[in-house]
Every structure is written in C-alpha cells, then in structure tokens.
Amino acid sequence: MSERNNHATVAVTGVTGALGGRIAARLAGHGVPQLLVGRSPDRIPELPGAQRRGPAAYADAPDMRKALDGASTLVLVSGHRTGRRLEEHATAVEAAVEVGVDRVLYVSLVGAAPTATYLNARDQWLTEQFLAGSGIRHTVLRAGFYTSTPAALADEEFVVSGPASTGRAAFVTHDDIADAITAVALDQGPRSEHDGATLEITGPEALTLEEAVTRIAAATGRPYRYETETLEQAFARRWRLGMRGDQIETWISWFQAIEKGEVSLVTDVVPRLTGSPATPISDAAWWPAPKTARGTR
Ligand SMILES: NC(=O)c1ccc[n+]([C@@H]2O[C@H](COP(=O)([O-])OP(=O)(O)OC[C@H]3O[C@@H](n4cnc5c(N)ncnc54)[C@H](OP(=O)(O)O)[C@@H]3O)[C@@H](O)[C@H]2O)c1
C-alpha cells in the first residue's frame, strides 16, 4: 500500500468525466494518493499525488489490472450504457480484486431496480447485485438525477420537452455527489459504517420538471421552459430528430421515472456526509449547453 499523508491509495475511474473528475480533484485536495484511470490517458487530469493510468476500459481485464495495481480502494464510476454494462463493471471489479484492492465504492443510480422505469437504472441494479454476491467490501452510492440534465436536454430554443407530467425528482448537483463520495472514500479505517450500505445521494427537495426548469431559467438568465408531452408526441418528436430506438426508449423512460415518482425521494445523505446542506437547483455552479445530453443527437 503506497501512502501520502497517511492515506491509502485510491483508484478513481471516469476521471475524464464530470463526476469522476470532481471526485479526483477533491481527493487530491485532501492529500490522498490516487491512480486516475481512463480510456484516454491524454485526457486524464494532472493532479498532485496522482498517477495517470490507462488506457483502460472496464471490459479489458488485463488493462484494468495494470491500471489498478497498487490501489486499496476503487471508486468505480458507472460507465456509459452499452447493453453489457454489468459484464464491464464485473470485469473491472474482478480485476481490482485480483491486484489486491479490498474496497469498492460503486457509483450507481437512484431507483436502481430490476423493474425500474428508467432503463439505465436496471443494469445499475445488476451491478449492485454482483457486488453484493462478490464478497468484496463495498458501498453503493446511488446518485440522484443530475441537476444539469434538464439544461442539457433543452433544445436550441431552451425548451425541455418530455412525458414527466407533474411528477417530481430530487435533482442533485455533481458537486454534492462528489463531496458525499469523497467523504466515504476518506473514511479509510479497516472498517467503516458505510460498509455494505446503499446511500441514496439526493438534492434538498423534490421538484416537478416545470419547477426545476423555471429555476434553471432564473439561475442562468436564459429562457428555459418545460413543455409536457404525451407519449405519442415524445416518440414522434425524437424520431423526427433522428434518434435511435434505444435512445428514444431510454430518454422517454427518464421522464416517466419522474412522472411515476421513482426518483423523488429526498435523503439526508449529503448533509450527513458533508456537513453542508444539499445545494438547491438555483445555486448549482455548472450548467451544460442545450442539446448536449448523451444519446439525444
Ligand atoms: N445520476 C444521473 O443523473 C446520471 C446521468 C447521466 C449518467 N449517469 C451515470 O453516471 C456516470 C458518471 O456521470 P458523469 O456525469 O461523470 O458522466 P460523463 O461525464 O459522461 O463521464 C463518464 C466517465 O465514465 C467513463 N467511462 C464510460 N464508459 C466507460 C467504460 N466502458 N470503461 C471505462 N470508462 C468508461 C468515461 O470515459 P470517456 O471519457 O473515455 O468516455 C468518462 O470518464 C455515467 O457514466 C453514467 O453511468 C448518471
């Protein structure tokens, strides 16, 4: 085990992305030695006390073993949806165990369940089950729906359209999620109260999409607005935009999960783990540009 300021080494994946990059920056700020793992090493951030490791995709066992060698804890940020995400995550976890990693912090999604309405939450549940059966010490960190997603889903006129009706979601910022996960990663004793736990990381309140989008408009000074769609309208508009069937299905299911109240739970995980209240949507520090949500182009 390599040590810097008496911290054990943490490997973080997804560091070229919005969440993993934030977690890595926070751990570096706490003086934690890190292995930053990515598929494109030239895009991995340079941080104090961190080695850049890769290229390593989750599905590539030898590359993952090489990238994770020397870590005690693995922060595994869930990968993009491929249809084989369980197998990819399982390969990454098995590679970690083979090189001596003894704790995995897995970033899952709120509402993860085999019958979840949001299709992306189903294989997150599969990975959670794999971890539960693997015997490795682990914590599941279920991230709430991102505050940033409605802004990224807007069209060039700043309109967010979808079949969410008046359902609610407890949108949470990337920064709050990163703070909460960092707190768990810093709890580096031989045992932690978070071992075996599933922590649902949510924002401070459950908002309808109309409320959320109205607040994004006020926060950004841009004319964002929400228009509810029927299922038929939701399909037809996305089909005209040239989206693939699986993309249409996945995004419609995102709105429907909100409509059905499957992502509306508000927890105290952010204040309990970070000591600060969860950030209201109006105070979010980062807004992506319209039309930048994955799988909408
Ligand atoms: N809670 C929510 O509302 C929500 C919304 C969207 C996504 N998610 C999930 O949360 C994850 C993190 O969110 P984010 O905002 O940080 O997404 P992001 O900015 O797209 O970053 C995803 C990161 O995961 C890496 N990655 C993806 N698939 C991989 C694979 N098969 N092997 C190795 N690395 C892989 C990406 O690497 P590259 O840079 O090489 O692509 C990137 O570094 C997403 O990947 C997704 O599973 C959650």
TrEMBL record:
It holds the Pfam family NAD_binding_10. Residues 14-186 form the NAD(P)-binding domain. This is NAD(P)H-binding protein. It comes from Amycolatopsis mongoliensis. The lineage of its organism: Bacteria, Bacillati, Actinomycetota, Actinomycetes, Pseudonocardiales.
